[in-house]
Amino acid sequence: MGKDVEVGGHEYGAKDYQDPPPAALFDAEELTKWSFYRAIIAEFIATLLFLYITVLTVIGYKSQTDPAHSPDQCGGVGILGIAWAFGGMIFVLVYCTAGISGGHINPAVTFGLFLARKVTLPRAFMYIVAQCLGAVCGCGLVKAFQKTYYNTYGGGANELADGYSKGTGLGAEIIGTFVLVYTVFSATDPKRNARDSHVPVLAPLPIGFAVFMVHLATIPITGTGINPARSFGAAVMYGKEKAWDDQWLFWVGPMIGAAVAAFYHQYVLRAGAVKALGSFRSNA
């Protein structure tokens, strides 16, 4: 890692580094660029593929362990395999789309980056719309190919498990999303990237592992949302009352977790609040 050198009361890294300027709230110029719409398409396709593979994995596991069809209750991929499917797909898709759209694939990630002023409001809004539509289409493909299994085994929809309170489910979603979004900020930190040239290549790996670990912990509680588009798409295509009754958990929890992670990284770890206060005092 590069060593900090203090010169004239300021710290400079051994490698050149400068914080990128915060994104404007609204940038009319970006609406005229093809790269803006290309990024939206990339988010749509990535979320579609994410839901298609992961929901198929969930339904496949449930069908393989259904006592009515299989005497082997230890068959299928298990919770570990489901967690690997979600984490592995995020790793693959972030790697594929990071250079085009940033590889968000999750409204909570987009919301956190918007609060940190990494993306503009129009980009954040269009990303979330594209992610939700992609999730609906991904689940729609699964339902079209395996309608009987899809309806019989829950359609991959997130629901609060029996025996857990709403508060427990909400807490699981908040903390799980915090872990994910905090990892996204840390893995894509431009200061770290400037000091360690290998970090941009490896960034999708810790993000995928964060998704994997959170799924291991929270699948028994909520089925693991931490991605409002994932929960929304499955609920739309499954359409049962329980999935919609619990839907608010999978929007409120992830958005709170993302907001806390953005604040923690930007204003505590990166000392944004201290820098802002120092700038205010110097101008006073």
Automatic annotation (TrEMBL):
<dbReference type="InterPro" id="IPR000425">
    <property type="entry name" value="MIP"/>
</dbReference>
<feature type="transmembrane region" description="Helical">
    <location>
        <begin position="82"/>
        <end position="105"/>
    </location>
</feature>
<feature type="transmembrane region" description="Helical">
    <location>
        <begin position="125"/>
        <end position="146"/>
    </location>
</feature>
<feature type="transmembrane region" description="Helical">
    <location>
        <begin position="248"/>
        <end position="267"/>
    </location>
</feature>
<dbReference type="InterPro" id="IPR022357">
    <property type="entry name" value="MIP_CS"/>
</dbReference>
<feature type="transmembrane region" description="Helical">
    <location>
        <begin position="167"/>
        <end position="185"/>
    </location>
</feature>
<dbReference type="GO" id="GO:0015250">
    <property type="term" value="F:water channel activity"/>
</dbReference>
<keyword id="KW-0812">Transmembrane</keyword>
<dbReference type="Pfam" id="PF00230">
    <property type="entry name" value="MIP"/>
</dbReference>
<comment type="similarity">
    <text>Belongs to the MIP/aquaporin (TC 1.A.8) family. PIP (TC 1.A.8.11) subfamily.</text>
</comment>
<dbReference type="InterPro" id="IPR023271">
    <property type="entry name" value="Aquaporin-like"/>
</dbReference>
<dbReference type="InterPro" id="IPR034294">
    <property type="entry name" value="Aquaporin_transptr"/>
</dbReference>
<feature type="transmembrane region" description="Helical">
    <location>
        <begin position="36"/>
        <end position="61"/>
    </location>
</feature>
<keyword id="KW-1133">Transmembrane helix</keyword>
<dbReference type="GO" id="GO:0005886">
    <property type="term" value="C:plasma membrane"/>
</dbReference>
<keyword id="KW-0813">Transport</keyword>
<feature type="transmembrane region" description="Helical">
    <location>
        <begin position="205"/>
        <end position="227"/>
    </location>
</feature>
<keyword id="KW-0472">Membrane</keyword>
<protein>
    <submittedName>
        <fullName>Major intrinsic protein</fullName>
    </submittedName>
</protein>
